[in-house]
Design a protein that fits this description.
- This protein is α/β, with parallel strands linked by helices and 558 residues long.
- The chain is built from 13 helices and 27 strands.
- Helix 7 packs across helix 8 and helix 11 crosses helix 12.
């Protein structure tokens, strides 16, 4: 193993046992086998971190193998997105990039071997008939009337299937195992189906395609995978996985080990449901920052370090459970707290005129880029007679514990001066549109010269120098912890996106690069949008609030 300390778990214990027993010549080889039929989500991140992390810790390697056995739903767009997501998380497959389609010829030869050995047959029954004959969890299945076809007839039909003589659904190739097995996966499973569809890798070379269960184990064996790590839903598939390995002349014997998936509250993980959200326009796309896809999380400003940290904290178990999404958000906060530069932005501006400040004067003030880390340096921010503050930082008739700006009250403008409200300007509807203040010239930097205590500190932006910005405030896409219960579309949170076009930020952000992480002081962590932001016209996505506002408000209670 490498020098990096790794938490022990039942998977590592199994690997350690295999190594002690001299299995696999001391090698550890894993694989990550995604289907290129959608974008990866946070649940896949756990499998990626586990497979690549285990291989790294044991000085082995992890293959990236695309399970591209269903050309109807797959595309090169998804292939490239999966590669980008894995690289973003910090992992690389090196020379070990494979596709199940690389092995189509070998898989077909093994299928022929099963037919010759009397262990597979071509079934002409319809899909509905096959489902009916399969039985139930409490009743055994019934054998297909075509199960006892001769080897010669099966070989002839299989050859004609490959040659394209039959339409989709007319024939399937099935293993001949046990229709009375309590394990439904062993009831003569389908190995090949007819699909007259062009494949993104093989073109029109094939019109029959292998099923997942027939592909995975043999592909693992071809790649000499030692430990096939997969999620718990494949536990019942393991006897079938092993049956193929035992009944075919494969070059190695991988060991399948199952672990629990990563499930998050307030989130749906089904690719089908995520695709429905995109197709029906409930979100703007796979990269909508409210989605649990990795490309969306990247756009929102989540960091790979935070996601890897979540996977470490969750650990590897044998029991499915649901992780509170607040844990992920906290991992993001902790990572960004150390990384994000502090800046000032005002989301809902209220105009403040400092009546005793010279009209033409501009003061360049020093502001810390990271108050807890002096090594990050400082920057200059302009201060002038008119500034913008947050509208919610002023109240004309404040409650007792409101320590921000109010008539007759003094507050500190962050990095600037102490100011006192002396007048309030309203429009014809009685709404406050402007506040007048006086500043203490001797309080530059925000310190009171006579030592008087000022409780409130608020952020601001010089109106003359403010950069207009679009800000997107994101919240959880669903309003209930378990949106999968019932119709998940009914639980979409109507307040999951708030768009602010009138926000303003300090001028230093005019050329902030897409993907830049920032903390808007007092407001939360933000990221420069990687799609819509332009030089001089920035768009900011709120990555996460400074604290768990759901827990505070009670919305996250179960």
């Amino acid at each position: 193993m490498t020098d990096r300390a790794a938490p022990t778990n039942f998977i590592r214990q199994a690997i350690d046992e295999d190594l002690r027993n001299g299995k696999n010549d001391g090698r550890v080889v894993t694989r990550f086998p995604p289907e290129p039929n959608g974008y990866l989500h946070i649940g896949h991140a756990k499998a990626i971190c586990l497979n690549f992390g285990v291989a790294e810790d044991y000085a082995g390697h992890c293959s990236l193998r695309f399970d591209d056995t269903n050309p109807v739903k797959e595309s090169l767009e998804y292939v490239e997105s999966i590669k980008a997501d894995i690289h973003w998380l910090g992992y690389d497959w090196g020379e070990h990039l494979h596709h199940a389609s690389d092995y189509f010829e070998q898989l077909y030869e093994w299928a022929v071997d099963l037919v010759r050995d009397g262990k597979a047959f071509v079934d002409s029954a319809s899909a509905e008939e096959i489902r009916t004959f399969r039985g139930t969890l409490t009743e055994p299945g019934r054998e297909s009337p075509h199960r006892n076809r001769s080897v010669e007839e099966n070989l002839d039909l299989l050859t004609r299937m490959r040659a394209g003589e039959f339409p989709d659904g007319a024939q399937v190739l099935r293993a001949k195992i046990d229709m009375a097995s309590p394990n439904m996966n062993l009831r003569d499973p389908v190995l090949y189906r007819i699909l007259h569809a062009s494949h993104q890798m093989t073109g029109d070379a094939w019109c029959i395609y292998p099923m997942y269960d027939f592909t995975q184990g043999q592909s693992d064996a071809i790649e000499h995978v030692t430990h096939s790590l997969c999620s718990l839903e494949f536990e019942d598939h393991r006897p079938l996985y092993d049956w193929f390995i035992e009944n075919l002349n494969v070059p190695s014997r991988p060991r399948q080990i199952e672990f629990s998936r990563l499930n998050l509250s307030y989130t749906v993980m089904s690719k089908r449901r995520l695709k429905l959200l995109v197709d029906e326009g409930h979100v703007s796309g796979w990269d909508d920052p409210r989605m649990p896809t990795l490309v969306a999380m990247r756009r929102r400003g989540y960091t790979p370090a935070a996601i890897r940290d979540l996977c470490d904290r969750v650990g590897v178990t044998k029991k499915d459970n649901v992780i509170d999404v607040a844990l992920l958000e906290n991992c993001v906060r902790e990572d960004l707290d150390a990384k994000a530069v502090r800046v000032m932005g005002v989301l809902r501006p209220l105009r403040v005129v400092i009546v005793n400040y010279p009209e033409s004067e501009v003061d360049q003030l020093d502001a810390a880029n990271h108050p807890q880390n002096p090594d990050r340096g400082t920057r200059k921010i302009p201060f002038s007679r008119v500034v913008f503050i947050e509208r919610e930082d002023f109240m004309e008739d404040p409650p007792k514990k409101f320590f921000r700006l109010a008539p007759g009250r003094e507050v500190r403008l962050r990095y600037a001066y102490l100011v006192t409200c002396v007048d309030v300007i309203k429009d014809d509807n009685g709404e406050v549109i402007e506040v007048h203040c006086r500043y203490d010239p001797d309080s530059r930097g925000g310190a009171a010269p006579d030592g008087r205590k000022v409780k409130g500190t608020i952020h601001w932006v010089s109106a003359e120098h403010a950069l207009s910005a679009r800000v997107r405030l994101y919240d959880r896409l669903f309003s209930v912890p378990d949106p999968d219960a019932g119709n998940f579309l009914e639980h979409i949170n109507g307040e999951s996106l708030e768009l602010l076009d009138g926000a303003c930020v300090e001028p230093s952000l005019g050329d902030a690069a897409p993907g830049t992480h920032l903390q808007f002081e007092r407001l939360g962590y933000f990221c420069v949008d990687s799609v819509d932001s332009r030089p001089g016209a920035p768009v900011f996505n709120r990555t996460v609030t400074l604290r768990d506002s759901w827990a505070k408000s009670g919305r996250g209670s179960r």
